[in-house]
Amino acid sequence: PSTSIGNNQTWLNIAKKVILEVNNYQPTALEGIHDVATLGLPPHRKPLNITKVDDRIGTPYLTVDPDKVVAVVVANTPDRVNKFTPLDEISIAIGDNVVKFFEQEVKAGRLPKDTLLPLQSGIGNVANAVLAGLKRAGYKGLTCYTEVIQDGLLDLIKDGVVEMASSASLSLSPDAVDDFRENINFYSKHIVLRPQELSNNPEVIRRLGVIAMNGMLEADIYGNVNSTNVMGTQMMNGIGGSGDFARNGYISIFLTPSTAKGGAISSIVPFVSHVDHTEHDTMVIVSEYGYADLRGKSPRERAAEMIKIAHPDYREALQDYFDRACANEKAGHTPHILDEALSWHDRFNKTGTMKKA
User: Fold this and answer.
1) 59 φ/ψ angles, rounded to the nearest 5 degrees
2) 147, 197, 218, 279: which one is catalytic?
3) Same domain membership, residue 101 and residue 44
4) Is 147 a catalytic residue?
5) 354 lies in a domain?
């Protein structure tokens, strides 16, 4: 394997015919960085003996039945990479708010002071900004148990902020790829790449107490999260591993700028247009205006916290919706005005903005 394992061992196991690629672009120093093991099928599935991020339970190699191999392709092809959006004031503020939340948890005795717990981070400039915030806060010796390593995490390894990172793949910008290749012998001591069924395994995520940090498109005032579909129908991206980590992490955090499309869309809405993560799997939501700690709160208490971190242009409208929903004689446990719950999305589709005229 090279810079990504994903589900490759599973594909090799179930395929009838296999074409192998030998890619001479990938540095030979990658050998040994991988930890390949398979779960097996029930009832023969055994516990995974991973109690620390750097534990290894498999081999550095993928295995395949030679009789399946019908061809070998020799290539010299670099990974397909993209540049990340540079950090801006909003993403930096989100990162700083995550650090403030961690400081609260350390003070309350719910997180270790210096090393926190293993971190999982999604992809994009907001995720990179959160990682940069950890560096500014002076953390050292952290660990990561995640699905993808991107530029921000590579920087933290280089600077000693992160001591060890486990992942299923690397997703780097062109400059970061060059840095990784030039310093592969250093990075290989601090990175282990595993199959996705290990990197995203619920048993391991829960045992290690992973802190999950993922981006989202929108959340509603009760904490339901949409991370995939714009206006409920237009897919922006897949769910990735966010569900694995949000459901099983010690703390599940979702990150978002408070608005999109130049302020025409609020990321905090009365009710999400698509649900990827229910309120039961969402613990903390962070915007540039602060963090909403939803743990242990009733739906009405959650709404109050969510409105605080919405963009100022939308707070009054959110509060008005919530107040009128609570005043309804059939308000119940989770107050909603059903004929208005998705009116913000409908307004955007008709006028190009969620704001009322």
Assistant:
1) -120, 165
2) 147
3) no
4) yes
5) no
